[in-house]
Amino acid sequence: MSSSIPGFRAVIPAGGAGTRLWPLSRAGHPKFLHDLTGSGRTLLQQTVDRLVPLTGAGGVMVVTGERHVDAVRAQVPEVAAADVLAEPSPRDSMAAIGLAAAVLVHRHGDVVLGSFAADHVIDGADAFEGAVREGVAAARAGYVVTIGIAATEPSTAFGYVRSGALLGIEGGPGVRLAAGFTEKPDAESAAEYLATGEYRWNAGMFLVRAEVLLDHLATQLPTLHDGLRAIAAAWDTPDRAAVLADRWPSLPKIAIDHAIAEPVAAAGGVAVVPGDFSWDDVGDFASLAALLPGTAEGARILGPATLASLVDSARALVIPAAGRQVAVLGIPDVVVVDTPDALLVTTLAHAQQVKTVVDRLRADGRVELL
Amino acid sequence: MSSSIPGFRAVIPAGGAGTRLWPLSRAGHPKFLHDLTGSGRTLLQQTVDRLVPLTGAGGVMVVTGERHVDAVRAQVPEVAAADVLAEPSPRDSMAAIGLAAAVLVHRHGDVVLGSFAADHVIDGADAFEGAVREGVAAARAGYVVTIGIAATEPSTAFGYVRSGALLGIEGGPGVRLAAGFTEKPDAESAAEYLATGEYRWNAGMFLVRAEVLLDHLATQLPTLHDGLRAIAAAWDTPDRAAVLADRWPSLPKIAIDHAIAEPVAAAGGVAVVPGDFSWDDVGDFASLAALLPGTAEGARILGPATLASLVDSARALVIPAAGRQVAVLGIPDVVVVDTPDALLVTTLAHAQQVKTVVDRLRADGRVELL
Q1: Which among A329, A357, A360 has CB closest to B354?
Q2: Which residues on chain A are in Cβ contact (under 8 Å) with B347?
Q3: Between vectors from CA A37 to CA A33 and to CA A42, what angle results, nearest 5°?
Q4: Do residue B345 and residue A353 have CB atoms under 8 angstroms apart?
Q5: Measured between alpha carbons, how far is A114 from A102 in angstroms, rounded to an integer?
Q6: Which residues of A touch B360 (CB under 8 A)?
Q7: Which residue from B minimizes the CA distance to A306?
Q8: DSSP string for residues in A205-253
Q9: A346·B328 Cβ contact <8 A
């Protein structure tokens, strides 16, 4: 389990502000640029670290917003400058991944591409590699392949993919037909899903032959397909800027799940590979707290532990990111996120509602803090 | 009610770290140097503002630690440099007030002095002035006089003074004999005190003729008396430093309540003047919150209101003293004190326990934060 996979290319869409992780994550310095696990590597770096052994050197491409290109290049110098694609504006995941697919086809022909978000946390390198290898086999057979994560709880924060019959693909013994996708369910439905044993979390990791993806796109969203093909043809030429300026702003804004995964699954064209590694999208501070090791008192501290002085505050999450001393007295489950220009104080139970604070600041015109 | 009182001098002992107001109040920048009411004047300045009309210009003396002398002089330039007495080390309130009394006698003869802490908040100038005028009359008659504050609730945070018979003093129609002092009571006793109508809060405001005070001191604590007399005799001479170095370190460390008020009251020498103004010693953040005006949502903000973004956090107390944005989500009664090098997050209910955080920091060797 260590050689790279011939003809396999990884695409990392690096977008999304991570609003629920404010004030750590900002529009100008989003989640994927942060080390959220205390490993010394940012989420983007960890994503690249995980993929380079599978693609081989030069096999990873990053698609990100223009304002983040410099930060991305600085963080992952092993990705060639030409493989960091800059989007002039955010057009959602289908445009980002489709652009990468079209550029890859233009440069390298019909590769198998795997798309992996820049801001997820994965633990279990061998299981991840095994799932990717099976997924590549299924992609070669023509499927759009999603990795279905073994659900460890009836989460209402994730979408689910339902597994159907085994497909009997060579090199992909665990690959099954995807019987369908569901959006984030309510608690009751989530519990039912888990009980059936057929549902797995849809982590948004897709593997597919680039030409298969573009063909589906041509069928489902011809405007988007044509725009991306035109942009890709111009990408490595002096016309790139002009074509981008002409075509990009009018590309349909749509997620790959809605654009491809759901309609193609309905037609029997999607496969699911079991991913039996631990995975989290670090969607909020409660999810972040669960990823961090606890102190002897059960607190979670992302940063120097000496900067947190906690008294009677069990399960506190403290992020002392401003170098200042943070003292908490008598607030169990508190969340304190201390940055140089903004401070958030809340509780784990309110983690999903942090966006309301960001909305309040935006309404108050404090955009410099967002 | 506006002319100054002949022969009356005010002494302001400006000591005490205000540990329960950490990290706003620090050893190097204690409570009295802060504007805790948002008035634009610090507690020390408000204390001087309140007293100068009663003493006349030049009638206020401040006794403080050596390290605070510069800050005191900068904050209250109307107090002459010679009237800011620097203590080489803290020896508690009896040494501070006794030193002022001895220096005043040496300079001016037998004045009436009134001692008022530098870090209390008073509302009701006319009632305060009336009480002081009655107190001065009783002091002239030879009593040690304390101002007893009308208790508005059965507080367990304050000591009490019990009133006895009216003394019939000219110019002091409300002055009664002090039947005794009590330490901070438990809740049951406090309720009983309030029910009798005889008990008032002992706010530590004393009025007494300087010679009477020194005579009591000579009786109760002759060593302290002799040391202070010797220091006072040298104060305005080149020998001050030498005598201070020789005598000050060995002076008994004792509060004026224990040194004078209690034993003299037992002998019938203490009078109590009713003080029907509002008073608070701002002992902790809950007490501070109660002094501040509430926002429309019932929050209390000491500092620029635009720096506090509060969602579902009723009765929050926020002190944005570092210029940073403070966002709180979903923690009613929260207390957030944000300073440039340290942050405290707690609740109003834990206000009295802030000292445990300070103790923890001291144990961890973080003395630079105290």
Answers
A1: A329
A2: 329-331
A3: 25
A4: no
A5: 13
A6: 309, 311, 327
A7: B364
A8: EEEEEHHHHHHHHHHH-HHHHHHHHHHHHHHTSTTHHHHHHHHGGGS--
A9: yes
Domain that holds residue A345: 291-369
Last residue of a domain, one of B245, B280, B315: B280
Q: Does A206 share its domain with A310?
A: no
Whether B81 has a pLDDT exceeding 90, the answer reads yes
Residues A338, B324: Cα–Cα separation, whole Å = 10
Task: Name which of B309, B341, B346 is nearest A357 (Cβ-Cβ).
Answer: B309
Section A92-114 average pLDDT: 97
Mean pLDDT, rounded, for A237-261 = 95
> pTM score, two decimals?
0.88
Residue whose C-alpha is closest to residue B146's, from B236, B52, B213, B101: B213
Report the distance separating Cα A97 and Cα A261, nearest Å: 13
**Do residues B117 and B235 share a domain?**
yes
8 Å CB contact of A360 and B330: no
Q: What b-and-e string marks burial along B334-363, b requiring 16 or more CB atoms within 10 Å of the CB?
A: bbbbbbeebbbbbbbebbebbebbbeebee
Of these ranges, A9-18, B53-62, B294-303, the one predicted with the greatest mean pLDDT is B53-62
Domain boundary among A247, A280, A313: A280
Using CA atoms, how far apart are residues A89 and A79, in angstroms rounded to an integer? 22
Whether B226 maps to a domain, the answer reads yes
B2 belongs to a structural domain: no
H-assigned helices in B4-152: 43-55, 69-75, 92-108, 125-140
Interface predicted TM-score of the whole assembly (ipTM), two decimals: 0.87
Report whether A134 contacts A96 (CB < 8 A): no
Q: Is A298 left (phi over 0), alpha (psi -120 to 50) or beta?
A: left
Contact (CB<8Å) B346/A369: no
Q: Which residues of B257-287 are buried (b: 16+ CB within 10 A; e: fewer)?
A: bbbbbbebbeeebbbbbbbbbebbbbbbbbb
pLDDT at B16 over 90: no
Q: Closest to A329 (Cβ–Cβ): which among B341, B342, B357?
A: B357
User: For the domain that residue A170 is a member of, what is the CATH number?
Assistant: 3.90.550.10
Q: Are residues A260 and A344 in the same domain?
A: no
Number of domains in chain A: 2
Q: Which residues of A touch B26 (CB under 8 A)?
A: none
**Interface touch A325/B311, C-beta < 8 Å:** no
Dig out the tokens for A172 from the structure. Answer: 């992909």
User: Helices B43-55 and B125-140, interaxial angle, to 10°?
Assistant: 60
Q: Is there a contact between A309 and B347 if contact means CB atoms under 8 Å apart?
A: no
CA torsion through residues B349, B353, B358, B362, sign:
negative
Whether residues B158 and B244 share a domain: the answer is yes
Query: Is B325 in contact with A361 (Cβ distance < 8 A)?
Result: yes
Query: Is the per-residue pLDDT at B1 higher than 50?
Result: no
Euclidean distance between CA atoms A120 and A129, whole angstroms: 16
Q: Least CB-CB distance to A345: which of B336, B342, B349?
A: B336
Q: Does A296 have pLDDT greater than 90? A: no
For residues A233 and A343, state if they share a domain.
no
d(CA B256, CA B96): 9
In a domain, A231, yes or no: yes
Q: Do A212 and A314 share a domain, yes or no?
A: no
pLDDT of A106 over the 70 cut: yes
Considering the domain architecture, whether residues A252 and A329 belong to the same structural domain is answered as no
Q: Are B330 and A311 within 8 A, CB to CB? A: no
pLDDT attached to residue A1: 46
> Is-cis flag, bond preceding A23, omega within 30?
yes
The overall average pLDDT reported for chain B is: 95
- Asked if residue A321 and residue A260 are part of one domain, the reply reads no
Query: Among all residues of chain A, which has the CA nearest to that of B306?
Result: A364
Q: pLDDT at residue A369 above 50? A: yes
B3 lies in a domain?
Answer: no
